[in-house]
Amino acid sequence: MRSTGSNVAEAPRYSEAAATFVRCFLAIFESGRDRRHIRPGGQATQSSFIVSSAEIPFPSTKPLASRALSALELLFGAFFVIGHNVFHIVPNEVIVLCVLGLLSVRLRDGGWSAMGFTRPVSWRRIFLIALAAAGVRILLGQFVIEPVTGFFWPAPSAPALANEIAGNVKLALLALLLVWTFAAFGEEIAYRGYLLTRAADIGRRSKIAYWLGIVFVSILFGYGHYYKGPSGIVDSGTAGLVLGAAYMLAGRNLWACILTHGFIDTFAVIDAFFAWSK
Questions:
Q1: pLDDT for residue 31 is more than 60
Q2: 6, 43, 185, 189: most buried, per Cβ within 10 A?
Q3: Among 228, 191, 210, which Cα is nearest to 100's?
Q4: What is the bridge-based pairing of β-strands 37-38 and 44-45?
Q5: Distance (Å, rounded) from C-alpha 258 to C-alpha 247?
Q6: Which 8-state DSSP code applies to residue 112?
Q7: Can you state the angle between helices 230-249 and 254-274, rounded to 10 degrees?
């Protein structure tokens, strides 16, 4: 199976983690679903869950203190990414950062729209952006990243379970479940949703701050797939750049990243099931 920048084929390792993630996400979502904003005149407006991401203000009237706090959150996130994937001294970073991110953004920013978790104006546009980004990522990985990194390092290490998916419907369906929960939702909320938002906070959420944040978070995303080896880190880091670009192209809408990630890894599962790469 071609490497795609995710953990889709490690079902035994992540099935329990995915279940924990889903329970935590649903609990937080249920606690915030009825939240309303009240205008000075007392009239309720729509929830911040569906506010356009272009309307997101900087989260504090005390920008210096807020930027410092965001920098600390970003460093804490980086510690968890490296600590889990490289040194194995902390729990899985996706679950921790996803839950922490949902809580932090809701408390500090007033709603998840601040990280792009919003209803898009056009689902069709989001779908097309995601489909195009997934295609770009797959083609880059197969025809650019793997050949170039092959000059310097061995090919990315595929999880052992990848070979077991071939022809195994039950295992393929389990992998798809992990793709659309732990990987697509979990990793995108953690990386593009939470960490990127806090990275952009440091530069007061300017456009250049977001793009610099995408580069930094993509490096972390690469190390989040440390098990693949050096070429796999570069490959997954490149996937992070594509996902970040989709996020920006969609007007900082997280659904573009979620769908892109899901499409990429769904293709990987189908590839493994039919053994196309072999």
A1: no
A2: 189
A3: 191
A4: antiparallel
A5: 9
A6: G
A7: 140
Residue 27 is predicted with a pLDDT of 57
pLDDT in tens, 177-219: 999 999 999 999 999 999 999 999 999 999 999 999 999 999 9
Do residues 185 and 112 make contact, with C-beta atoms less than 8 angstroms apart?
no
What DSSP assignment string belongs to 47-102?
Answer: -GGGS-GGGPPPS-SSHHHHHHHHHHHHHHHHHHHHHHHTS--SS-HHHHHHHHHH
The torsion defined by the Cα of 96, 98, 99 and 100, in degrees rounded to 10, comes to: 80
What's the CA gap between 209 and 214, in Å, rounded? 9
Percent of the chain with pLDDT over 90: 73
- Residue spans per domain, the chain: 11-35+61-274
